[in-house]
Amino acid sequence: MITLDGLTKRYGETAAVQGLTLTIEPGLVTGFLGPNGAGKSTTMRMILGLDRPTSGTALVNGRHYAEFSHPLREVGALLDARALHPGRSARAHLLATARSNGIPAARVEEVLATVGLSGVARKRAGAYSLGMSQRLGIAAALLGDPGVLMFDEPVNGLDPDGVRWVRELMRSLAAEGRTVFVSSHLMSEMELTADRLVVIGKGRLLADAPVADIIAASSRHRVKVRSPHEDGLRELAARLHAQGASAEETAPGELLVSGVRVEPVGELAHRLGVPLYELSPQDATLEQAYMELTADSVEYGAPHPEAVR
Ligand SMILES: Nc1ncnc2c1ncn2[C@@H]1O[C@H](COP(=O)(O)OP(=O)(O)OP(=O)(O)O)[C@@H](O)[C@H]1O
């Protein structure tokens, strides 16, 4: 488990992270999203004790990273896949890391096999492609068999097979009860991989919720309802309006509801005795929901092509 409490980091005038308070739970893949410069890497660096918070705390399993005598057995991380000694082979790199954390050398062969690098383990890491470096970084994170794993952009540079492999690896690590915290800019991939999302913008928390809830909160998310009972549908629409949702009659006997998930609409229809011929979510994509959430937080946005014309 990772616990952030009022976590704040300032670099001079720049407030990189501002008062983040949240818990990243075990047994789930938690995606960490935010525009460039939002503070994701800074947050991860503070969790790993690589940056000192200006105020607040970042704890792993209730303790500061610096308190662990064998940190790699508690938390494994991939932050920068290229941060390797280029002259060392993958095996030598992993052996050195293992030795410094009291991890048996046999574990190196296991993680090399897990990430598919056994056949090239004697090659210089400097000659690796970006995708191979990512795999080596993931191997290093897994080395201590830790309960907490953090990955900063792990699919960067991977081919589609590699992307799918990372997705399955993240899911299986979470299924084993580990805490998996992963940042990415690839929304479609996050939609497939993550259970929960933490979204930040300009260092501040924008959302911390299950993926489905974040998508359902998008104004583009709709629920289509069809019934032959037009009076009943009108009553349903009025009740939904009263609950803060909006319901528009798009055709006789058809409503498009926004601002609410499909389940409460179905339950309300049942309570009102309105027979339904259709009750279907017209899902927004995570990308649409994310764009709405972060619209005011994008610092380095280019003008939209239509605004330039
Ligand atoms: N060492 C540093 N010194 C000064 N400013 C920094 C430093 N590290 C990060 N920052 C600033 O802090 C802010 C957050 O940066 P950070 O790298 O954490 O964002 P990010 O969400 O990881 O971005 P990206 O998606 O582009 O990787 C940015 O404004 C960045 O310029």
Keywords:
P-loop_NTPase, six-stranded mixed sheet, 309 residues, binds adenosine-5'-triphosphate, 35% helix, four-stranded antiparallel sheet, Alpha-Beta Plaits, nucleotide-binding, ATP-binding, alpha/beta, ABC_transporter-like_ATP-bd, 2 domains, Rossmann fold, ATP binding, 13 strands, 11 helices
Question: How would you sum up this structure, described in words?
Answer:
- This protein is α/β, with parallel strands linked by helices.
- It has 2 domains: 2-214, P-loop containing nucleotide triphosphate hydrolases (Rossmann fold, 3-Layer(aba) Sandwich); 222-282, Alpha-Beta Plaits (2-Layer Sandwich).
- Helix content is 35%, strand content 26%.
- The protein has 11 helices and 13 strands.
- The strands form 3 sheets. A 6-stranded mixed beta sheet has the order 5-6-7-3-8-9, sandwiched between helices.
- β11 and β12 form a beta hairpin.
- α8 packs across α9 (262-272).
- The longest helix is centred in the middle third of the chain and has 16 residues, at 160-175.
- It is elongated.
- The N and C termini lie far apart (49 Å).
- The mean pLDDT is 92.
- The protein binds adenosine-5'-triphosphate.
- Adenosine-5'-triphosphate binds next to β2 and α1.
